[in-house]
Structures are given as C-alpha cells and as structure tokens.
C-alpha cells in the first residue's frame, strides 16, 4: 500500500497541476464519447492503451470482458450500459479482449473451477463463445476463444434495449478489439456474419422495446 500513497502524492504534486483546468471542467461535466468494456485483468488499462484523457472513456471492466445478454432483473453491467447509451449518449462501444486472458484460458483448457463457484457461474456467459470455437474446429485454442468471445459479447450487447434502439437509429457503433499484451498491438475485428447477427439482434430488441 505505501506505493499507492506515494502515487497519489506524485499525482497531486506533478500530474494534477498542469491539468487543473481539465479537472475543473470535469467537475461539472461528464460527456464521454466511448463506452469501453474490457477485462478486469490488471494488465489491460483502457486509458493507457488508448492514450485518452480523463473524461473520454466510460469504462466497464468484468472478468473475461463478458456482457450478459439482456434479461429481467437487476444487473450492474446492464445498468452501466444503459446509462452510457441513454444518459451519456456515447457514440461508440468497444468490447476489448486480450491475449493470455485468465478467464478464456480456464474455459479453453477446461480448468477445474469447483473451488471458485462464483467464477464458474459468471463464465457461463461465455457459453456461446465456446460453441463458436467448437463449430470452427478451434476448441482448446485460447487465442481463438478470445476472438470469438469478443464477437459473442458484441452480440449480447445488441440484446440490450438501449443498445438495440441506438443501433437501429444509427446512433451508436459497435467495435471488437483484441489487445496483445506482449507486443502492445490492438487488432480491430473485421465486420463478419457475427456483426450481421448483432444487427439482427438489435432490430429484434428495438421492436420488442417499443
């Protein structure tokens, strides 16, 4: 913990003063343009990867960058997504997976998660991702699962009514990224049949929400 206290002191001494004007503005304004959904992994820092200033990203981080499909009931991820889209009016949503993801490694390699039942239950939101790799003949390939999981979570996003309405109205764009920790590259996944499926989910969700 001492290094965290030292970091705060250095922030207040060296970082904050040159950006005092920005923080004064942010004290009364909150209008990020992008919702960034990434993994909770400590090695993946959205603001560092994108080199964005405070106030530019609305960040949601979950184990495995998972986004549960819309369902009735209370859901912290759903609430954050809805707030970003309907209140903040973000124009872009990024789902970012990454290399060496612990969640995807556990699933791809079939790790025993009996000692972590909450983790095991959460990772059920990646069932569609596993099915995609099985269909593609890449079961057990962590990198393939990382990519398929990003696509699957984009499809899940499109089931949320707020996202579905925004997609149908051309008010928001979805992006799938994969960050490679070792070399610092970020790959943007191309538009595929998955993206088409996401748009179909969005259209269905928009009709249901009317």
Name the structural class. Answer: alpha/beta
Roughly what percent helix? 40-55%
Poorly predicted runs are 204-210
- Overall, the morphology is globular
Biggest sheet layout: 5 strands, mixed
Q: Assess the beta-strand content as a share of residues.
A: 5-15%
> How many beta strands in the DSSP annotation?
5
Radius of gyration: 18 Å
Write down the secondary-structure element order: HHEHEHEHHHHHEEH
Mean pLDDT: 92
Strand order of the largest sheet: 2-1-3-4-5
Given the structure, what is the number of helices?
A: 10
Note the gap between the termini. 50 Å
Protein model, in words:
- The chain contains ten helices and five strands.
- Strands 2-1-3-4-5 form a five-stranded mixed sheet, with helices on one face.
- The termini are far apart.
- It is globular.
- With 210 residues, it is an alpha/beta fold.
Topology:
Blueprint: H1 2-15, H2 20-26, E1 34-39, H3 46-50, E2 57-62, H4 76-87, E3 92-98, H5 102-108, H6 117-122, H7 127-136, H8 142-157, H9 161-168, E4 173-179, E5 186-188, H10 193-209
Parallel strand pairs: 1-2, 1-3, 3-4
Antiparallel strand pairs: 4-5
Task: Give the tags.
disordered C terminus; 210 residues; five-stranded mixed sheet; 5 strands; globular
How is this structure best summarized?
This protein is α/β, with parallel strands linked by helices and 210 residues long. It is built from ten helices and five strands.
């Amino acid at each position: 913990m001492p290094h965290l206290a030292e970091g705060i002191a250095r922030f207040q001494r060296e970082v904050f003063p040159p950006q005092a004007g920005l923080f004064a503005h942010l004290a009364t304004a909150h209008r990020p343009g992008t919702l960034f959904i990434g993994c909770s992994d400590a090695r993946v820092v959205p603001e560092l990867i994108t080199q964005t200033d405070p106030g530019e990203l609305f960040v949601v981080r979950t184990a495995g960058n998972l986004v549960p499909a819309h369902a009735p009931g209370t859901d912290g991820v759903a609430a954050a997504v809805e707030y970003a889209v309907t209140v903040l009016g973000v124009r872009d949503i990024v789902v970012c997976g990454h290399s060496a993801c612990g969640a995807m490694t556990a699933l791809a390699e079939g790790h025993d998660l009996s000692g972590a039942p909450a983790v095991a239950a959460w990772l059920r939101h990646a069932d569609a991702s596993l099915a995609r790799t099985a269909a593609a003949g890449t079961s057990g390939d962590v990198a393939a699962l990382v990519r398929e999981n990003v696509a699957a979570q984009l499809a899940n996003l499109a089931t949320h009514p707020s996202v579905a309405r925004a997609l149908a109205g051309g008010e928001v764009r979805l992006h799938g990224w994969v960050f490679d920790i070792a070399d610092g590259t970020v790959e943007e996944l191309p538009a595929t049949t998955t993206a088409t499926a996401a748009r179909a989910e969005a259209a269905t969700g928009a009709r249901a929400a009317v």
